[in-house]
Amino acid sequence: MNHRSLVFRLGAWYTLLLSATFILVAVATFYGLRHYLRASLRDSLTRRSEQVEQILVRAPADVTAAEIAREIETRIAPEFNNRFVRVTRSPGNMIYRSGRPSDGSFDSAAVGAIKMTTSVEMGRSVTAMVNDQHLMVSATPVSSISGRYLVELGVSIEPIEAVLERLLDLLALLLPILTVCAAGGGYLLVSWALRPVDRISQTAEQMSLQNLTARLPVVPSGDALERLSNSLNNMLGRLGDSVQTSRRFLADASHELRTPLTVIKGELQELTNGGPLTKRDLNERVGSVLEEVDRLEHLVSGLLVLSRLDAGETLRDWGDVDLAELVRSIAEQMRLMADDRGIEIELSPLEKALIRGDRARLKQIVVNLLDNAIRFTPRGGSVRVRTASDDSGSLLEVSDTGIGIPPSAIPFVFDRFYRVDEARSREDGGAGLGLSIVKSISAMHGAEVDVDSEPGRGSSFRVKFPRRSPLVAAVALTSAPEPRSSQGRD
C-alpha cells in the first residue's frame, strides 16, 4: 500500500476522525452514566433520610434511644434493605447504628464519622463517599423537641461500580472493532469516491493530438469534481480548436508559399534550359521572379507578425499615441501608392484621439486597413479615414468606395488566408493576412473591430478603442509632445 497516496491519506484521516469521535462518545457515555446512577442514588438517600427525619421530629421530648431505634428498625429496616443508618444526638452521643446488611456489602462498625462541614453545621445535608466501604453516605442535621440529631444514611455503590466496569469492558472490546471497521470503511469509501478521478485519468491517458475529440466523463454530483470535469472538457475543446486552427494555418501557409516558389522555379528553369534570350525576355523573366520574391517577402513578414502575436508577444513601446497624428503621417506615406492607382485619400475629419498602445503595432493597423482599401478600390474611387474620440472611447474608421464584400463573406474576412475573390487577391499581391493582423493587434490593445460593407458600394472598417481613465487622459494630454510634421516618416 502506498502510504503517500491520496486514498491512504484520506482513509487515515477518516479513521482518526471516527476513532476520536468513538472515544469521545465512549468517555461521555461512561461519565454520563456514572453521574446519572449516582444522582439517582442520592435521590434515594434523600427520601430515606426524610423518613428518619420524620421519626425524629415526631418523637416526644422524653423519647429514649431504644424507642428511636425500634421505630427506625420498623419503618426503615436497614439490614434487610442493605442500608447503613446512624443517628447521633448532640453533643456526639450515638443512639442508633444499623447492623451488618444482609448482602454483606459493607461493615457498619467500620464506617467512620462523616467529616463535619459548614453546610451540615448550617442545617443542610451533604453526601460523601466512603471509599474503603464502597458507600455513599448522606449526612442530614435534624432539630426537634427531643434534641439535635445528625442522621447518616448510606447505601453501597458496588452495583453501580459493577455496571460501570461492565461498560468499560464493553467499550474496550468495541472501540478496536469500530476503529478497524472505520479504517476499512474509510478506505472503501474514499476509493469509491475517487473512482471518477481514476476514470478521468484513464481517459486522459488515451488522449493525444490525433484524438482530441475524446472528452472526460462528467459525474453529475454538483460538486468541485463535476466543475473540474466540465472545465477540463472546455479546455480540451479550446485546445482542439487551436490545434485545428494551427493545422489549417500550416496548410494554408504551405499552399501560399508553394505558389510563388513554383513560379520562381519555372522561370529559373526557363532561364537555364531555354535557348538564347533577348534582353527584353531576360528582363521580363527576372522581373517575374522579383515579383514573386516580393510576394514571398510580404507573406513571410505577415506570418512572422502573426506568429509573434500568437506567441503572446508583449507590447514593447507602450505609451500615449494620438491616432489623428499617426493616421496623417501614414496617409502621406501611402498617398503615392494611391495616386498610382488613381485613388484619392481623404482625411476628414481627424479629431484628436489619444490612446495607450504600441505605436509600431498601431501603425500596422492603419497601414493594413489603408492598403486593403486602396487595393480593392477601382481607379477613380476614394478612401476616407476618420478618427474620433468621446466618452465611450476612441475610433479609427477607414471607408472606401471599392468593390465591397458579400454578406456571406463578412463573418470570415478576419480569418487567416481568407479571400473573397481568390484570383483578384493574387493579382493584387494579397495573402489574406492583413485583416487577421489588424484583429490580433486590436485585441492586444483591448479594441474591437467590425466591418460594414455592401457589394459594389464599398466597405467601412472601424476599430473601437476602450475609454481611458480620466486622470490618465488628463495627465497624458498635458504632457503629450507636439505632433510631428505630416511629411515625416513614422
How far apart are the termini?
Answer: 70 Å
CATH top level class name of the largest domain? Alpha Beta
Strand order of the largest sheet: 2-1-5-4-3
> Strand-and-helix sequence, N→C?
HHEEHEEEHHHHEHEEHEEHHEEH
How much of the residues is beta strand, in percent? 15-25%
Description:
The longest helix has 53 residues, at 6-58. 53% of the residues lie in helices and 18% in strands. With 490 residues, the chain is an alpha+beta fold. Helix 1 (6-58) packs across helix 2 (65-75). It has three domains: 6-162, Beta-Lactamase (2-Layer Sandwich); 224-307, Signal transduction histidine kinase, dimerisation/phosphotransfer (DHp) domain (Helix Hairpins), CATH 1.10.287.130; 314-479, 2-Layer Sandwich (Heat Shock Protein 90), CATH 3.30.565. A five-stranded antiparallel β-sheet has the order 2-1-5-4-3. A five-stranded mixed β-sheet has the order 7-9-10-12-11, covered by helices on one side. 22% of the residues are buried.
Topology:
Elements: H1 6-58, H2 65-75, E1 83-89, E2 93-97, H3 118-121, E3 126-130, E4 135-144, E5 147-156, H4 158-193, H5 195-205, H6 224-273, H7 279-310, E6 318-322, H8 323-340, E7 344-350, E8 354-358, H9 359-375, E9 382-390, E10 393-400, H10 422-427, H11 434-444, E11 448-454, E12 458-466, H12 470-479
Parallel strand pairs: 7-9
Antiparallel strand pairs: 1-2, 1-5, 3-4, 4-5, 6-8, 9-10, 10-12, 11-12
